[in-house]
From TrEMBL:
Protein name in UniProt: ABM domain-containing protein
Domain ABM residue range list: 15-63
InterPro entries: ABM_dom, Dimeric_a/b-barrel
A Pfam family annotated for this UniProt entry: ABM
Tree of life domain: Bacteria
Length: 84
């Protein structure tokens, strides 16, 4: 989708876990997000610098809904203050 056609995110929800079990759980968590109202998109992120860490970053048109995260996963919601 061209940048000018994208809806800007109002909130970003981050969920982070460590280890293979968390990676599998966060993959399933990612798959479940698309059915939520206001969902704009999400990514499952890995880093070679931190191979045990898995992160799901999801973008929301309004307030992020209450999202039950898997056991052992930490999560935060941020309000978008600026984007390019």
């Amino acid at each position: 989708m061209p940048a000018q056609d994208r809806v800007p995110a109002a909130c970003v929800h981050y969920a982070e876990g460590k280890g293979e079990a968390a990676r599998a759980a966060l993959h399933a968590f990612l798959d479940a997000l698309a059915g939520q109202a206001g969902f704009l998109g999400a990514e499952l992120l890995l880093s070679a610098a931190q191979p045990e860490l898995t992160l799901v970053a999801s973008r929301w048109a309004g307030e992020a809904p209450p999202l039950p995260v898997p056991d052992g996963v930490r999560a935060w919601v941020f309000q978008v203050q600026a984007s390019r």
